[in-house]
Design goal:
32% of the residues lie in helices and 22% in strands. It is α/β, with parallel strands linked by helices and 360 residues long. The strands form two sheets. A nine-stranded mixed sheet has the order 14-13-12-11-7-10-9-8-15. Strands 3-2-1-4-5-6 form a six-stranded parallel sheet, sandwiched between helices. The longest helix has 20 residues.
């Protein structure tokens, strides 16, 4: 992690939103990062205000973003972890107030809006970063290492699944059918799997998608498939679903030398939900969950050998943000990268609606 330079106080962070994203991911990771201090939490919910103060006794709570921006001069960073439809207006206000911003994914509802935000940040000389935490998942880090080592040879197909079994809708804005809410799995989990595919294999040239609403009472897509053709020839097959009664492998990557198969989700989200915090052993998983690399026809073992999974490292994201603000280090997730992923998501939505292949 990045330490606070001697004699310099920590950077003061205002966090807008204390639902799932704010309370489970952002607040604990901010508090665990040397050089950052969680100063203010914005939530109008009295129970969430009480929860924030109980978990972080030094934090102040306010009910509205206006109260936060009234104190803009006392802050060094704003994190937007509120519902999707508020991301653009709140990030815009922060940038116009002269504050660097971290925005949860998706940064915007459209690629055009994301690029407008990026242009505003560049004009003001401010950091605008997007919280794509799944770049620091254990399986993703392991796959990047294998690709760097050329362990798979030329990659032909990348299969990625982010599946769950939730046969009954929970409701709320994430499952709303109102387009203004930017709900549904395409823009939720789809933001992760598309971002990972683009980071691994570069820009996409064609997009095909199937997106449906399967559960009774659901309004937004809950079972979506996206096929990408990358400029380098790799084909990515991406699945996001709340209706998977049997979960497939998280990754199956097929190359000219070998394949890599990995089951199970990175353990960091579950650990954060349980109230655990980064420390020794953080992000490590049991050896029984390690993936396999190699080739073979066995339906039981999958062939090849066990490949140790690198530890997941969500704390690295905010450590990089702190370093970018303190030392001018690189932005861990640039908003223009997020805009490129939104190009794909918009194309996927059109493809699914019109049953066409969309060329980018």
């Amino acid at each position: 992690m990045t330490g606070t330079p001697p004699g310099n106080p920590p950077l003061r962070v205002g966090l807008v939103g204390y639902g799932l994203a704010g309370s489970v991911f952002h607040a604990p990771l901010i508090a665990a990062t040397e050089g950052l201090a969680l100063d203010t939490v914005v939530t109008s919910n009295p129970e969430r205000q009480q929860q924030a103060r109980a978990e972080f006794p030094d934090v102040r709570t306010v009910a509205t973003p206006d109260e936060l921006f009234d104190r803009a001069g006392e802050l060094d960073l704003v994190v937007v972890a509120s519902p999707n439809k508020t991301h653009v207006p709140l990030a815009t206000r922060a940038l116009e107030a002269g504050l660097p911003v971290v925005v949860d994914k998706p940064v915007a509802g459209t690629a055009a809006e994301a690029r407008e935000l990026a242009a505003l940040a560049e004009e003001r000389g401010l950091l605008l970063s997007v919280f794509q935490n799944r770049r620091w998942d254990n399986d993703f880090r392991t796959l990047r290492k294998l690709l760097a080592e050329d362990a798979l040879g030329e990659v032909w197909r990348f299969e990625s699944r982010f599946e769950r079994w939730r046969p009954k809708p929970k409701g709320g804005w994430r499952e709303s059918g109102d387009p203004a809410e930017i709900g549904g799995l395409l823009y939720d989990l789809g933001s992760h799997v598309v971002d990972q595919a683009l980071v691994l294999f570069g820009p996409a040239t064609q997009v095909y998608a199937e997106s449906v609403v399967r559960r009774a009472g659901a309004e937004a897509d809950d079972d979506t498939f996206i096929a990408l053709t990358h400029a380098n020839g790799v084909r990515s097959h991406l699945h996001v679903s709340s209706t998977a009664a049997q979960l497939g492998p998280r990754f199956r990557v097929l190359g000219s030398k070998a394949g890599y198969v990995k089951h199970g989700l990175d353990p960091q989200e579950a650990a954060l939900r349980e109230g655990r915090r980064p420390g020794p052993g953080w992000g490590e998983e049991d050896e029984s969950l390690w993936g396999r690399i190699g080739s073979g026809d066995s339906p039981l073992t999958g062939g090849g050998r066990v490949e140790a999974t690198l530890a997941g490292d969500y704390p690295a994201y905010y450590a990089a943000v702190a370093k970018a603000l303190r030392e001018g280090g690189p932005n861990p997730v640039d908003a223009r990268e997020a805009a490129a992923a939104l190009d794909v998501l918009e194309a996927a939505r059109r493809s699914a609606r019109d049953s066409v292949v969309v060329t980018l």
